[in-house]
Amino acid sequence: MNSPALLPGAICAWLTKHRSCSVRHALACAVLHPGVTMARTHQTLRLSALLFGAAAVSCSDYRSEAAAPHHDIEIVASGITYVDGLAFHPSGAILATEEYRGGGLLRVDPVSGSYTRLLRDLDDPDNVLVFRGSVYITEEAALGRIIKIDNRQQITTFATDLEDPEGLDVGPDDKLYVAEHAPNGHVYRYALDGTRELFGSVQDGEGLRVLPDGSVIVAETSAGRIARFLPDGTKTTLSEGALTSPDGVRYDPVLDRLLVTEDAAPGRMLQVDLVNGGITVVATGLNAPQTMLIEKDGSILVAEQGEDRILRLRPKEQAQ
Question: What is the CATH number of the domain that holds 290?
Fold first, then answer.
C-alpha cells in the first residue's frame, strides 16, 4: 500500500464529525459527493480508487499500533489490498476477500502467509461464507448480490436485489442471513433454494453472526450499536454508546463470547458480554480492523484492512 495522502483540515473536520466507517473509505464521499451521508461512503470507494489508486487516504498518516495485553500479535499475511472478509476453507486455508471494485477472493496459507488468487473482477466483495461445500460472497454494491461457487467451481448468482449487502452467516435452521449496509437496511433470510424472507431492519448493518440459539447479531455501524434479533425477529439492543463504527462480529463457541471490531483508525477489538452488553477491550491501535476468525487453539485472526494484512492474536499462555 502506498503512503496515505493527507486531507485538508476542513474535510478532516467533516470526516471526524460524520465518521461511520473507516476514514479511508470516506474520501470520495467528502470530496465528490458532499451531500451524501457517511453511511453511503462504501458506494463511492470505487470513485476514490479511480482518482487515487490503492492509496489509503486519512486525516493523519496513521500506522497500526496494534497491542493486546493478553495476546501476542503476529502477521499471518500481508499485501492483500483492502482485505475484508475471512472464512476457513475445508482444507484449513483461509479465504480472504479484497474489498474494492475489481477485487477478488484469495486462498491464504495460515502458516506461510502465501496466497493464491481464486477469483478476480468482483464488485466490492465483502463477507465470505463456506457452507455445505459451497462458497458464498456478498458484493457490497448499490445493486448488490450474493454469488455462489459450488464444489464444481461453478459460479452463479445466489441472490440479487440487495442494497450494499455485507454481513453473511448461516443459522441453525440451515438458512443464510445477510445484512444491508444502508440507512434503511434490512436483514434477509434465504433458504438454500434462494427463497427470501424479510427478517428485520437495520441502520447501516455490517457484520452479522447467528448464535447457536438462533438469535442474530448485527453491527449497526453508523449508530455505534450492536443489535440482537431474537429467533422470532424481535429486535433488541445488546450494546450501545461505547463503540465506534462497529464492523466485524464473531462468536467464539468455546468461550461463549462475542468479538467485535471497530472500523476506525485507530480501531479496537472488543469482547461484548452476551447478557448485559458490557465491553472488554481485547486489542487497541488497529488500523481499520474488519472480519475475524477463531482458530482451534483460541487464536484470533483479524483482517487489518488499513494495513492490507491479516494478523493473528495468539493467547500468551499458548504463544511459543
Answer: 2.120.10.30
pLDDT (tens digit per residue) in 4-23: 334 444 444 334 333 333 44
Instruction: Name the amino acid, one letter, at 229.
Output: F
CA atoms within 13 A on the CB side of 167: 36
3-state SS assignment for residue 283: strand
Contact status, residue 25 vs residue 40, Cβ threshold 8 Å = no
Q: Which three cell numbers stand for residue 84?
A: 475484508
133 belongs to a structural domain = yes
Q: Which of 200, 289, 210, 202 is CA-nearest to residue 243?
A: 289
| Per-residue CA distances from 228 to 148, 198, 272, 297, 312 (Å) | 27, 15, 12, 28, 27
What b-and-e string marks burial along 226-260, b requiring 16 or more CB atoms within 10 Å of the CB? Answer: bbbbeeeeeeeebbeeebbbbbbbbbeeeeebbbb
Answer for the pair 266, 62: CB distance below 8 angstroms, yes or no.
Answer: yes
In a domain, 176, yes or no: yes
Which stretches within 250-297 are classed as H helix?
A: none
Is residue 246 domain-shared with residue 293, that is, in the same domain? yes
- In the chain, the amino acid numbered 51 is L
- The pLDDT score that the predictor gives to residue 131 is 97
Question: Of the given ranges (16-30, 54-68, 105-119), which has the lowest mean pLDDT?
Answer: 16-30
The string of DSSP codes covering 23-59 is GGGTHHHHHT-TTS-GGGHHHHHHHHHHHHTT--EES
